[in-house]
């Protein structure tokens, strides 16, 4: 019985292992995330802020990861939009992640988005409960970095 208990605790801990993140970052499934709501930044400057901390604007490429982030943002209860790493800066209509240049495979745009052919960056839009919007990259918003 003792051995079964020890084994259970041991295995439980393996599944509970989370990456150790820098101070001020949140750990989730072997990645670290930093949510910054102020000062707000253009998409470009937000990515520079992330790069200064050895990260980039976040690549969010699964439903479970997005739901985790949305819960964090909703809990903050701030009327702020947040930049993530998705953009179509290099080739219009082809959305890619800044972290690795990969094409975006999984989208979570709000039903009315994307709707502006001059909006080349992706923001998590507060009134849409953080579903995505295409926005001008020069707009000043909060941002999410990911390692
Ligand atoms: Ca839009």
Automatic annotation (TrEMBL):
Q: Where is the C-type lectin domain?
A: 28-146
- In Pfam terms, one family for this protein is Lectin_C
Query: Which GO-annotated molecular functions does the record name?
Result: carbohydrate binding
CDD domains, alphabetically?
A: CLECT (cd00037)
- Aminoacyl-tRNA synthetase found in the keyword field: no
Look up the coiled coil feature and give its residue ranges: none
For this protein, the record's PROSITE patterns field holds: C_TYPE_LECTIN_1 (PS00615), C_TYPE_LECTIN_2 (PS50041)
Kindly indicate where the leader peptide sits in this chain: 1-16
UniProt cross-references to InterPro entries, sorted A to Z: C-type_lectin-like, C-type_lectin-like/link_sf, C-type_lectin/snaclec_domain, C-type_lectin_CS, CTDL_fold
Asked if the keyword Repeat belongs to this entry, the reply reads no
Keywords associated with the record:
Disulfide bond, Lectin, Signal
Name of the protein in question? C-type lectin-1
Q: Which organism is it from?
A: Pinctada imbricata (Atlantic pearl-oyster)
């Amino acid at each position: 019985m003792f051995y079964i208990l020890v084994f259970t605790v041991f295995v439980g801990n393996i599944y509970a292992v989370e990456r150790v993140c820098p101070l001020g970052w949140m750990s989730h499934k072997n990645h670290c995330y930093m949510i910054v709501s102020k000062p707000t930044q253009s998409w470009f400057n937000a990515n520079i802020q992330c790069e200064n901390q050895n990260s980039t604007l976040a690549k969010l490429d699964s439903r479970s990861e997005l739901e985790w982030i949305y819960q964090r943002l909703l809990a903050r209860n701030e009327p702020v939009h947040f930049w993530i790493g998705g953009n179509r800066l290099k080739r219009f209509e082809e959305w890619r992640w800044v972290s690795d240049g990969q094409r975006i495979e999984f989208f979570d745009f709000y039903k009315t988005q994307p709707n502006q052919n001059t909006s080349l960056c992706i923001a998590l839009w507060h009134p849409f409960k953080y579903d995505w919007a295409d926005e001008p990259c020069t707009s000043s918003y909060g941002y999410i970095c990911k390692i």
